[in-house]
């Protein structure tokens, strides 16, 4: 039975359109027009919406880790990326199914209908078990997922100069470290696991699940591993997602190792293409931005995480202006620890517009695209019909309460349509989301999930946590900070920020 979804305004391509209605039948948008036109064509169709709403495509979270409660809630304070990472293993683990279920519910309440999940294994040997459990959690929540099982084969303890770092440590601390880095998964075993997951779960028709490959970060993966990952993805018409240039020390590592930027090195080994998404990219060099655009590489921009972990601010306006495909990701580290995608878009827009009259502008229209069509493209591929309010697109839609956003005393015609994208970007929050549809099915109605009580899922998670876990010494961060501080005294040219 078809349904007509309509609102006072719709955001199509980041621009406001008045009196746009969509007809949804099954999983797809099958028709569009004014409300009167669609009612005439589909007189029996159920109608949802009205003049109290703004209609927009569902958001795509282009990079996340599905951590559910977040790291701060579990006892890990924010710090520099490298010192923060050294303490992740101290956190109590959440069963993958529950973590994905809760993360999916939380994202849907924020209007996110698809997520790129960069998996953090509880145990590397259990990856074939953990990934299906995570997929089940997302599936039951009702959210699309691009799943990234990770692989690393080098430099987990520090990026380089390993022996010099070990020489800094007191004997009692050095004895507590797992100097093998704790990864017991070979590349052959990893790709065999990927093959099985791809055969069992990859959905290239309806895009409910994509299985993608994730060499976890350039500094943590050898050239051979990165090349093999790219070849695996290209031969199966899927994608690669990799952390890249999140901190300045990763930039320094590239120059110490190859005497050139990370992006130039990836280009030299055949590791750049339109099948690749790079997460963070805070320390990308200006000369490399045009190369990213030329090769069609996507960038997942994580502004809250970059601020919380003291990594810096990516030149997102420059990248967008150059034609780099940029999507917004939450990274499980939003500024208010609440996975509010609308607030993340606002932060990306506000901080993306830098000081100085000569600065490159980042428009509200661009930011809406970064949260919808652009993010969907760099997460599921340009051919996936997601992030659009177009006939033939998959029906992933959100309805925002425009009256709650504008306030009780504002007139009904405020603001003017040409200002609506900026107005919504400045003022809207997750509590203004009323209804969310994924693939033609309502998963959020009146702000609540139709099948799950989030409070009950959260209670189950908290009751199962074991806070006695302590597998890494808390004394390590101070030595890591001393080690990397010395890297800052090199001769690399400073980047303008």
List keywords for this structure.
alpha/beta, globular, TIM Barrel, Urease, subunit C, domain 1, four-stranded parallel β-sheet, 36% helix, 19 strands, single chain, nine-stranded mixed β-sheet, 497 residues, 20 helices
Helices and strands in order:
Elements: E1 3-12, E2 15-18, E3 21-25, E4 28-33, H1 35-41, E5 46-57, E6 59-64, H2 81-85, H3 96-108, E7 112-118, H4 127-141, E8 144-148, E9 150-151, H5 162-168, H6 171-174, H7 187-201, E10 209-211, E11 214-215, H8 223-235, E12 240-244, H9 248-258, H10 262-268, E13 276-280, H11 286-295, E14 298-301, H12 303-308, H13 316-322, E15 325-328, H14 341-352, H15 364-371, H16 373-380, E16 397-401, H17 402-406, H18 420-427, E17 433-438, E18 441-445, E19 448-449, H19 454-463, H20 476-485
What proportion strand? 15-25%
How many distinct helices? Answer: 20
CATH architecture of the largest domain: Alpha-Beta Barrel
Biggest sheet, open or closed, and with what strands and sense? 9 strands, mixed
Radius of gyration: 23 Å
User: How would you state the average pLDDT, rounded?
Assistant: 93
C-alpha end-to-end distance? 54 Å
Overall description:
With 497 residues, the chain is α/β, with parallel strands linked by helices. Helix content is 36%, strand content 20%. The chain has two domains: 96 residues, Urease, subunit C, domain 1, CATH 2.30.40.10; 340 residues, Alpha-Beta Barrel (TIM Barrel). It has 20 helices and 19 strands. Strands 1, 2, 3, 4, 5, 16, 17, 18 and 19 form a nine-stranded mixed β-sheet that branches. Strands 6-7-8-10 form a four-stranded parallel β-sheet, with helices on both faces. Strands 12-13-14-15 form a four-stranded parallel β-sheet, with helices on both faces. Strand 7, helix 4 and strand 8 form a beta-alpha-beta unit. The longest helix is centred in the N-terminal third of the chain and has 15 residues. The chain starts with a strand and ends in a 12-residue tail after the last helix.
